[in-house]
Each structure stands twice: as structure tokens, then as C-alpha cells.
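User: Hi! I'm working on a homework problem where we have to compare a predicted structure to a textbook description. Could you give me the structure for the chain below?
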Amino acid sequence: MTGAFGRLDRKVFGHVANRSWPGAEPVLPRLSRSANHGLLWFGIAAGMWALGGPRGRRAAVRGVASLALASATVNTLAKGAVRRDRPLIDTVPLVRRLPHQPFTSSFPSGHTASAAAFTAGVALESRGLAAAVLPVAASVAFSRVYTGVHYPSDVLVGAGLGVGAAYAVRGLAPTRDLVATPARPRVDAQALPDGDGLVVVVNAASGAQPQLLDPVRQIRTLLPRAEVILYEEEAGPLPDVLDAAAAEVAERGGVLGVCGGDGTVNAAVEPALKHRVPLLVVPGGTFNHFAVDLGVDTVADACAALAEGQAVRADVGRITADEDGSRSYFLNTFSLGVYPELVRLRERWSPRLGGPLASLLGVVHVLRTSRPLRAEVNGRPESLWLLFAGNGAYRSAGLAPLRRHDLADGVLDVRIAHGGRFARTRLLATAVAGGLARTRLYAAARVTSLRVSGLPDGTHMAYDGEVVPAPGAFRLDKLPDALTVYRPLTD
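Assistant: Happy to help. Predicted C-alpha cells:
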């Protein structure tokens, strides 16, 4: 760069190089190297995923996606479009210099673009987490000038590109403030500001057991008059405990609460329907899909909705066995085929390997060993890798359901992955290429009911994360607007 701006750029660089920065010499060069190839940000994202709850997981995913776009843009387009020599580092003290000097174009700073993209992506999901990350990102950006590998303008433009990448990702995958969960149909529900009339069952055996003491403390602090039942296996089956709590609530004209993961929430559905009581869902499990889709990210969200009397109606999915008329219910998803087997493997292996590794190995094992399932769907013989039914329409990436924006739309979101010659390989290839909607191996429809029959003995089904033996023939349908659930509402 030439002209007055270029002279100012070099002047500021020289000022940084010549000035003494107490305490920075042992920190900034190491910090700068730790950000090579995004490793620093991947590590922070892993911590958010593990400890940050649903909002932390969303922030981690959005931050990494923003970083990936920024890195690709800078390294493949920006650096090739503008060739700029690196600064002369004669005036930079040896103790600050990096062991290996970069040889690519100086303009713009890729490290800064990645830092800014990650931080901005996190900020779009959680300002609190972004406030913790921002000083680290700013230090990485400054370290690029401090170590002598970039001019200040390289850093400023890199930061701008990084922030732009985060907003570009938001354009492709809107944040919740842009696509709010529809709060319909609203329903009149009693407000319990101090929790008087609430009986909440907390499942200490859920997937987030080490974290459950904190929700209990929060519930007792925010709703001091609520009755909290800490469920343990010695008390009997969880559905029985929930049924007794629902009966007590119905007699008193109160509210049934449940704290745990999706399986725990599922166990509360039948008691709530049977006794016609409203349900307060308090997130306390590993993923909390229903609570997240409902708009209840935290214990405080649930308690605030109850205190204000803010509630909506939600549909309930229903499975009715042909043989004896027995019924099961689901709030999220139902599936047959490879997914129930994957869940079984994950539950078997996760105590030894941890959840993420168990899931990865389960996918590899299922793809290598599984065979298509033969059944009849609406009277038509099918060979299936997977039959998925969502309680409401899901946004998705290929076969993977991501999120619902309406919990009372009256439809089942049905996806079927068919078997056939080389079907497994072709499905994987088209899914990666984003072409599932155009392949005959994959079908999708939104219906109000579906009948499945002719299932072989030993077939398992999964709903809301629980795996159980499947009846030989059954009907899937919905109970529209059947459940009253509390959730924060915005006008």
C-alpha cells in the first residue's frame, strides 16, 4: 500500500515494534502460535460444547462455521487478490519473533479473520460467552503486529472479513432472534410467581446427572414454594412417580413440572394428558431437544414462563399398536431402522468411551454391518434403511433433523431412506453432495398419519431417544394441540 495511508500503516507498525510492552513477551508469541490452523478456537469450542449447555453448543457450532468460512475466504480469495510483502522485522526484537516466518501475502491477516469470525459467531448466540472470548481474540489480533508478521491494516481488514463471515453464516442459518419459534396457539395458563401449586420431578438418573444439583438449587431459589421431588430408582418406575405427581397436581389445580432430558420429559407426557394438567419443562438433560425447540434454554426461562403464566399448546405424536391397542407418545421424533441400533450402541459404549466417541464408532459400526429393514408402509412393501417421523416439520440437513419452528403444525414430518443396490453408498454420496431431495432412494412427505406393518420379530423402534421393541404393526398419528406447556412468549 502506498500514499498517506501506507505511511501511517508503517508508522504505527514501527511504533509497536519499538515500544516496550512489559509482560507481553512471554505471552503474545505463544498465543499467536496457538491460533495456527484454528487450534486455539477449536479447543475453546470444545469447552463450550462440553460445559455451555444448549446455548454453548449452538455458539460453538456457529463460531466454528464462521471461522471455516472466514479462513476459506481469506486463504483462497483475499490473499490471492492482493499481494503484499510482509513487514521488515529488523526493528522487531528477536524475543518477539515467531520461529517460522509466514511466506504468504501479508494482506489480510488470516489469524485475525479467524479470531474475529469465531468471536462474532459466538456473540450471535451468546453475548456472555463472546465477552469471555473477546479479550483472547483481541490479543491474537494484536499479536500479529507485535510479532512483526502483519501491518495494522492487515489486522483491521482481517477483522472486518471475519465479522462479515459470521454474518454470512447467519444469513444461511439464521439465529433464533431472526427466526423465532412461533408462539401459537397461545393458551390461558395460571401464573405461579413463587411456585405455589407446582410439583416438579427431577430425574437424578438423566444424562446430565452431575449438573442436576444446580437446576434443583435454581428451582428452589426462583420458585421457593414449589414442591421438588428428586427422583431415584428406589422410588419405582419414573412414569409411576410422574403419574402420582400429576394426580396430586390435578387434585390441587396446579402444574406438573419435569426436569431432565428428552426421555424424562417423554415420560411425563402420558400423565399430563391423562390428568389434564399443564406441563412445565425444565431442561436438565444432555440435549433437551424439546425444551430447545420450545424456546426454554435455561432453568430461568422455564421459571419465568411459569411466573408470568405464559404457555402454548403443543402437538403430541402417538404410536398405537394394532395387536392390543397400547399407545406410546413422542414429542420429538420416531424412527425405525439404523437409528435405533445406533442409539443402542451409543448407550452401551458411552460409559466407557464417552458420548461423542461412542456415537462416532456407532455410526461406523451401523454403516458396516446393518441391513435394510423389510416392512409395509401404508400397505406397500418397502426395503428401508431408515424411517423417520418428526412431531412437526423439521428444518434439516439431508436426513438429519435440525430444528422445528412450530410445535403445533398438525403434521408428521416423514423421511424414508430406501434400500436397494448400492443404496448405502449412494445415500451417503448424495447426502454429502446435498442432493437427497433429488434421489429416488430418499422420500419425504408431511402427513397426518402413517401405518407400518409386517415388521420382523426383534425389530426395535426409537422415540425421543428411548429404544424399545416395536409392535409388528402400528399406526402413527398426532394429537393436535393436546398438551399445554409453559414457555417464554414475546409479542
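For your comparison, note the following. The radius of gyration is 27 Å. The chain has 15 helices and 17 strands. Good luck with the assignment!
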